[in-house]
Amino acid sequence: MTSSSKQVHNFSAGPSILAASAFEKSIQDIQNFAGTGLSVLEVSHRGKEFQAVMDQAHALVKELLGLNDEWDVLFLQGGASTQFYQIPMNFLRTKAAYLNTGVWAKKSLAEAKAYGSVDVVASSADSNFNHIPAVYSVPSDADYFHCTSNNTIYGTQMHSFIDSPVPMICDMSSDIFSRPVDISKFSMIYAGAQKNMGPAGVTLVAIRKSMYEQVADRHVPTMLRYSVHAENGSMFNTPPVFPILVSKYNLEWVKEMGGLEAMAQRNQAKADLLYSAIDASPVFKGTAELDSRSQMNVCFVPQEENPELEARFMAACKEAGISGIKGHRSVGGFRASLYNALPIESVQALVQVIQSFS
Ligand code: PMP
Asked: What average pLDDT does range 75-96 have in this prediction?
């Protein structure tokens, strides 16, 4: 969203672009929430007005992801990074299997090591995480298998998921709600909200109720038990009311636009347009291997190292109103994040700049 007259094309990796309607409705609720004459920021989370928001937000997540009654949806705090230790604290009894596909995957498996043994089933670390390993097997005596569906920093994405012999847990922080997923393959998915769901400050967890029976025999603090949050409808303690409210409005937009099928088509069109321009460019190249390319985060660099060219490209992007394009320091170059709410016109603007460098 921008209030200045010049259009800003927001390619930020997260926090990132959200639907304009989510901002408009949230601003209204800051001023006068549900006819209370009070701001949503100053009323009880247990009042009937906020309870309705909470119920709708839970229902929207269930509907969009196609979750049946075997699942609980939880809104937690602490970011996806808290899940990195909360998951093993709850579910790692002896051994867990992890797929190492990037910085966030590495952080998650590092946390797990404090709770038991970690079997890294495959890793793309040796090639600076430029692909998703294709062949690996998950040991059937692992307590769970953890993977990361989209590697925000390296611009790689899992385009298929194995039939895991053990519960599969997935960090979907940077591609949740961007495409339909076969939820039957998973036992838990989680995501920090601040890409396709809403603002930073709330973490989405969708968990199969059967997982509560798998909890390890160790002390798990009350706040870190998934079942406690489920029993309390994500209101065991004061929830992050505002991020939940904005997320609800943003997910309403996803639903109005046609749900996850429509998001997938929209995102595919944007990614195809941008990757084609990069592949046709005589000066830039993509960093991810073709079959691992992400539809959410498109990473590209000059074909030859060229700091002067990078600086000129950044300046040209700025001139064209393109924001948030700088690559993560571990890959360098540029990263264009094409989350749900980014319109194709923004990608067209970026493509024009890329084409002007030839
Ligand atoms: N996992 C992935 C895939 C991410 O992209 C990020 C953040 N960009 C995280 C985990 C960490 O999320 P948080 O900042 O919510 O802890």
From this structure: 98
